[in-house]
Amino acid sequence: MDNSAQIDAWNGASGQKWARDADQLDGMLAPFADAVLAASKPVEGQRVIDIGCGAGALSLAAAKLGAKIIGVDVSVPLVELARRRAAEEAVDAQFNVADASAWRPAEPAQLLISRFGVMFFADPVAAFANLRAAMVPGGRMVFACWRTFMENDWAALPVRTALPFLKEAPAPAKPGTPGPFAFSDRDFVSNVLAGSGWANVAHTPWDGEIRLPGSKAEDTANFMMDIGPLSRALADQGVDPDTVKQALIDKVRSLAGANGETQLKAAAWIVEAKA
């Protein structure tokens, strides 16, 4: 399979942005790391793989519970940050730069976890077959993935606000296309996992609100234009971000709470399966 497009992106602008804003992004996504840990329950001494570990927030949390964690990600800047965080926090965690669709650990893992790191494979069936081969028989997998774009206001609202300034409405991605919402359809995910040899697949919906980065409307608007679906639409269409910034600032101000922070609806699946 050819994951080169994702590897290039996460070692280019996307990876640099996520590394730069890692603290804010990890804060925004903390509820999902908590949900994955609550469902997976890593324990002392358990061999655990974190796929698409990014800057290591989920890996470090699992390691602090006593798990023997290996984080895997294609992004050099994010893995380097994860290693620095582990050293600063004196946490015993290993981080590898590798394509999880082909990588294997030295020893089979007992648990596989991920916070939004498994939706980017060009051939997800082959990738999940390789991941299953990295597990002990009966090993468990728990990951978080986004539901549909329209169910996630943190992604959809900025695009809706910017529509008058865009050349055209962004075309929805085809189901299964590598990207944030590739696993939004539970039947598609179930078929991928069944086709790659996983069993006992279960989906638990997660619904709630998440806090967007930025304590000021201007900062949150900048985040919306810099990371996420709107940033891709602006780049793809060559639209000057300044043309939409004030509309975003006004929208954020209308939604912000008393402390100036903005919380928007999010919807995800917590998916479980057995090797």
Description:
The protein is an alpha/beta fold and 275 residues long. The chain has a domain at 4-149 and 175-211 and 267-274: Vaccinia Virus protein VP39 (Rossmann fold, 3-Layer(aba) Sandwich), CATH 3.40.50.150. The protein has twelve helices and seven strands. It has a seven-stranded mixed sheet. Helix 2 (13-20) runs parallel beside helix 6 and helix 4 packs parallel to helix 5. It starts with a helix and ends with a strand.
Helix percent reads 40-55%
**Discrete helix count:** 12
How much beta, percentage-wise? 15-25%
Please tell me the overall pLDDT. Answer: 94
- Which CATH-level-2 architecture of the domain at 4-149 and 175-211 and 267-274? 3-Layer(aba) Sandwich
Instruction: Please state the structural category.
Output: alpha/beta
- The beta-strand count equals 7
Low-confidence regions? none
How far is the first residue's CA from the last residue's CA? Answer: 22 Å
Please tell me how large the radius of gyration is.
Answer: 18 Å
Biggest sheet, spatial arrangement of strands: 3-2-1-4-5-7-6
What's the CATH first level of the domain at 4-149 and 175-211 and 267-274? Alpha Beta
Task: Outline the biggest β-sheet.
Answer: 7 strands, mixed
The coarse silhouette is globular
Q: What's the arrangement of secondary structure elements?
A:
Layout: H1 4-10, H2 13-20, H3 22-28, H4 30-40, E1 47-51, H5 57-63, E2 68-73, H6 76-88, E3 93-97, E4 109-115, H7 124-133, E5 135-146, H8 153-162, H9 186-195, E6 199-211, H10 217-226, H11 229-237, H12 242-255, E7 263-274
Parallel strand pairs: 1-2, 1-4, 2-3, 4-5
Antiparallel strand pairs: 5-7, 6-7
Helix pairs in contact: 2-6, 4-5, 10-12
